[in-house]
Structures are given as structure tokens and as C-alpha cells.
Amino acid sequence: MNPPISPERVLPTLNADGTRNRIRPRLYPGRIHRRRHVAAWGLMALFIALPLLKIGGKPALFLDVIERQFTFFGHTFLATDGVLLMLLMLTIFASVFWLTALVGRAWCGWACPQTVYMEFLFRPVERLFEGKREAQLRLDQGGLSLRRVAKNVVFLVLAFALANVFLSYFVGVHALRTWITESPSRHTGGFLVVAVTTGLMFFDFAYFREQMCTVICPYARLQSVLLDRRSLLIGYDVKRGEPRSKGKPKPNHGDCIDCQACVASCPTGIDIRQGLQLECIACGQCADACDSIMDRIHKPHGLIGYASQEQLESGRAPSMLRTRTVIYSALLVGLIATLTIAVSTKQSADVTILRGVGAPFSESGSNIVNQLRVKVQNRSGQAQSYHLELEDFPNARLIAPEDPLLIAAGDQRTTTVFVLAPKDAFRHGTRNVRFRVNDAHGYRVEIRYKLLGPEVN
């Protein structure tokens, strides 16, 4: 039984009978594409370099999920830094809102790794092996070919390289180098992680492709709340283009000759003349295609291009200052300032004093013994030795088996200490004291603590 035929295409990636419509965009190397090409290769270099660059002895970007440590440009955020992480995430979200309100989905078309690698690495390789759009469509009809097999072998190599770049953000360059250079039998888990990630990369760029943007990524579905009528987007000038003429310009018709070049060039398969659609990634390939046709029929550029909905309807250039952008800008500046102050004032260590396990105190002759646990997190980029002192309690004695306490860079240790104090030092079963913790490089913190003891009248 043949599958039912839909009266309309639901998605550009689906044919009317529900089968996959493979998008094979035609390349029109115009001015927008040339600018994107320069930006893309710069971004690819940046994506590769970020895990390798060191800032203050730390990777520029390292998301250590296992150890729950996240390093951003020399600053390490720990899982316990709830406020700092919240400020960081709010800053990222506010940046997305602000950028989208100004330039629409420019991130998707110009800077998203999915688009950058797909359009400026994998598609050029594909064209090298399979030829232009028409040749690729013939290969789609003809089935497997030697050229397509060779292309997929190169795709697999590229996917392996990108998988390693991707994983270096999460496991670190050193661990990844060990996984790659040593026998898989010594690092079975790491080998499987690299293999699975390579497979997913290959599946994405060899098969899934534009569906990552149109089906998986939620950003497109947020357009309706992030954009307004003055946001920059790719648009079709209806007043200039309609009514359309077929084949060549005609009197009393618009400049659009219905050549379908904009549709053939679109990496997500949409017709931009139908208005703003969630599949549009604002890459501008349709604008380059239309401009090349306008050159042929001796018409000015700009029938399709970057503009706001208001500009397309009224002809007025959009204003950058409007309620939404002012609010987003103020919010973003406030968040960045707050995050900067919070990070810059964060000390190089975190010290927590906890009561020991078991009884709150014990008696030893005429003294009361409080067992305490001192937890120190070394946030600095080098090993440190921490010294603990008990202040303003002259009749008490601090016993610290490990003093100073040596902690490697980024590590955390917990040590047990004992405070011996005379019974008559406690009133109503407590005694307030101050502990001081310092290191040899200027770190110093004082912590107030309440010791427990017997009730003394």
C-alpha cells in the first residue's frame, strides 16, 4: 500500500509522501558568503584553540563535568559556587536575548558550530567529491557510488577530529591525548567515548544536517518571543518584487522573475518569499543568490537581504534604541558588572569548619575537647600550604595533626583538629571563638565558630 500523500509539505525536509527531502543547496559565492567564509575559518581556529590556550595557568575554556569544575577564561567556578554560576547563566541568557533582539538569528547563520562546520568544512568537501548541486541530486537518484563512499571516508576522518576537539572541552587536552596515543585496552572507557562521539558527529554532518537546526535546536521556536518588528532578519521586499514575472522582467511587474535561485541556495530548503519562517537561520545565502540574478537582469541588489519587518513595510531604517533593546542592554550591563565584581572579590580559597562526627564534645580531665573538621578548597592555580590558628582564647589549645595543610591546585582536603579548653571557659554550654586560616601568599580569612561544652553556672 502506498503511503498517503499530504496536500501540503509540512516541513522543507519532508516530501509530500513523508519521505526525506535531502537539501542540496547551490552555492552562490557573493559578498555575504565571502564575509561568512572569513568569519567561519576564524571561528574554527578559535574553537580548536580555546581548550589549548592557557589563561593564568588554566585552560581558556574547560567544562570538567566529572570534577564539577567549570573554567571560563582563567576563572574556575565550582559546583558550590551557586551564586556565581547563576550569574553566569543569567548573563549568557541575557546576551542571547539582547543579540537576537538586535540581529535576529545571526548567531545561527554566522557563528553556530553546526552551521560553521557544515557550510564551510563538510559541504566544500562534498562538492569536491560529488560536484555541484545537480550532480549531487543525480547521485541521490542513482544510489551508492565510489565518489560518495570516498566522501564519507573523509567525513569520518573529519568527524573523528571534531569529536576530539569537542571532548577536549570536557575531559581536557592531557586526558584526551592519553586516550588517543595509548592502547584502547588501557583506556576502554575513553576509547568508547571518543568512538561514540565520532559516530554522532558523522551522523549529524553526513545525514541529519539541517534537521539539527529545524527539528532539534529550540532556538528557532523562541523567535516569536525574542524578535520584534525592528529586529534584523533576512527578508524579501514584497513591494519591489511583486507581482512576479516568469523568466525575465516584464512591464508592470516586480523585479522577482521567479527563478527559484533563493530556494535552491537555502541550506534549510525554505522559500524566503513566504515570509519569516522558523527554519531560516539568517545565513544570507538566498540574498547572494538573488543579487547574482539581479546582476544578470540589470536590476539593483537588495530584493532579498538583511532588513527588519518594519523596514520592509515602511522603508525606514530600524532604530537600535527601542524599549526591548534598552531593557536588555541595561540588564546585560548590570549582570556583567555584578558577575565581574563577584569573581574579582572571590578569595583564593574556601574554608568551612564543621563539627566532628559523634558526640558534640568530650571531657579529658579538667578540659573539654571539641573535635572539628576543617574543609579547605584551594581555588588558586598552584599548590598552597594553609595554617590554622585559634584567636582570642588564651586558655585553650589547638591541636592540628596536619599543620600546615598542603593542598594541590584546585583540590579540596578535609583535616581533623581538636580544641582543648578548661571547663570554666564555657557559659551556658557554649563559647564563641575565632579561627584564622592563612597561606604564604597573602590569603587570610577569619571564621567565627561556637564551641560546645558543659553548662557552667
What does this structure look like?
The structure is a single chain. The chain is 42% helix and 19% strand. By secondary structure, the protein is an alpha+beta fold. The strands form 5 sheets. Strands 8, 9, 10, 12 and 14 form a 5-stranded antiparallel β-sheet that branches. A hairpin with a 4-residue loop joins strand 3 and strand 4. Helix 1 crosses helix 4, helix 4 packs antiparallel against helix 6 and helix 6 packs across helix 8. The longest helix has 26 residues.
Strand content: 15-25%
> Treating each run of at least 4 consecutive H or I residues as one helix, how many helices?
15
The low-confidence parts are none
Task: List how many beta strands DSSP finds.
Answer: 16
For the termini, the CA-CA separation is: 95 Å
Q: Biggest sheet, in brief?
A: 5 strands, antiparallel
